């Protein structure tokens, strides 16, 4: 199950709408091993494409160094689908290389850039196997 | 000669869970052969199987001292004692 706070959830959806019709992408970092998505980092889609996304290689290194310094890991890796449902594509499954991450898909096919609820779904993708999981949106993450 | 190699989560099954290992070699290609000798199986995850051993996989990024090796000679990029190599899987999809 993915538990995410409302503000981060809204931030991901807003990013997806803003970049529509291109795919938007980013991560939510959190303390290593905590499974807490705490720090939203919007990334640039280096592919600038409605059918593909990729983090720029320099941005990727900078991001991972930053997470390393903070003892963080990518708890959520998100991207949008702009013409299809929020389900991992064959390419998404083939390229998923973070076994600990929740892969979040947002679909903007219905609303595009406009207001309104967007389809928001979460998956585990491990060794080519996709498992959908429940998403729980909370006002804020509980204190530990 | 020691070169520190940072290993991403997905490849730590080959390094016994280690986040970083030491390697040896005067080029990236030689370093990868050295890694393979100590961590069998890792080479196949780095080298494009369709390239005849000549290229990195498209969705694996390797950096030498923060430079993407694609811009500094790919597998022929040179290495020296004390260099730091980082391996990161691309974050990409469709």
CATH superfamily of chain B: Beta-grasp domain
- What's the total count of β strands of chain A? 9
Largest interface: A-B, 29 and 17 residues
| Multimeric state | heterodimer
Structural domains of chain A: how many: 1
Strand content of chain B: 15-25%
How much strand of chain A?
35-45%
Q: How would a textbook summarize the main sheet of chain B?
A: 5 strands, mixed
Q: What ranges of chain B have pLDDT less than 50 throughout 5 or more consecutive residues?
A: none
Q: Which geometry of chain A do the CA atoms define?
A: globular
Mean pLDDT, all residues of chain B: 96
H-E order of chain A: EHEEEHEHEEEE
From the 3D structure, determine the CATH topology of chain A. Cytidine Deaminase, domain 2
Which spans of chain A have pLDDT < 50 for at least 5 consecutive residues? none
Please identify the top-level CATH class of chain B: Alpha Beta
Instruction: Give the % helix of chain A.
Output: 10-25%
Instruction: Please give the CATH class of chain A.
Output: Alpha Beta
Structure notes:
The complex is a heterodimer of chains A (144) and B (94). Chain A is globular. Helix content of chain A is 23%, strand content 35%. Chain A has a single domain, classed as Cytidine Deaminase, domain 2 (3-Layer(aba) Sandwich). Chain A is α/β, with parallel strands linked by helices. Chain A is built from 3 helices and 9 strands. A 6-stranded mixed sheet of chain A has the order 3-2-5-6-7-8. Chain A has a two-stranded parallel ribbon with strand order 1-9. With 94 residues, chain B is of the alpha+beta class. Chain B has a single domain, classed as Roll (Ubiquitin-like (UB roll)). In chain B, strands 2-1-5-3-4 form a 5-stranded mixed sheet, covered by helices on one side. In chain B, strand 3 and strand 4 form a beta hairpin. The mean pLDDT of chain B is 96. Strand 4 of chain A pairs antiparallel with strand 6 of chain B.
């Amino acid at each position: 199950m993915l538990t995410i706070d409302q503000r981060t959830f809204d931030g991901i959806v807003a990013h997806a709408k803003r970049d529509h019709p291109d795919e938007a992408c980013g991560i939510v970092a959190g303390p290593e091993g905590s499974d807490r998505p705490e720090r939203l980092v919007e990334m640039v889609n280096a592919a600038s494409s409605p059918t593909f996304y990729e983090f720029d290689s320099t941005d990727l290194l900078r991001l991972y160094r930053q997470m390393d310094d903070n003892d963080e890991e990518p708890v959520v890796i998100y991207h949008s689908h702009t013409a299809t449902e929020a389900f991992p594509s064959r390419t998404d499954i083939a390229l998923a290389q973070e076994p600990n991450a929740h892969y979040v898909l947002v679909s903007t096919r219905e609303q595009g850039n406009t207001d309104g609820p967007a389809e928001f779904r979460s998956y585990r993708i491990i060794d080519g196997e996709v498992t959908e999981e429940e998403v729980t949106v909370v006002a804020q993450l509980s204190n530990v | 000669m020691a070169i520190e190699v940072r290993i991403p989560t997905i490849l730590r099954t080959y390094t016994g869970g280690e986040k970083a290992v030491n390697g040896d070699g005067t080029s990236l290609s030689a370093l990868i052969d050295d890694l393979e000798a100590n961590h069998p199986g890792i080479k196949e995850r780095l080298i494009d199987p369709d390239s005849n051993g000549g290229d990195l996989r498209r969705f694996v990024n390797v950096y030498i001292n923060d430079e993407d090796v694609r811009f500094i000679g790919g597998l022929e990029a040179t290495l020296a004692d004390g260099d730091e190599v980082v391996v990161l899987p691309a974050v990409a999809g469709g």
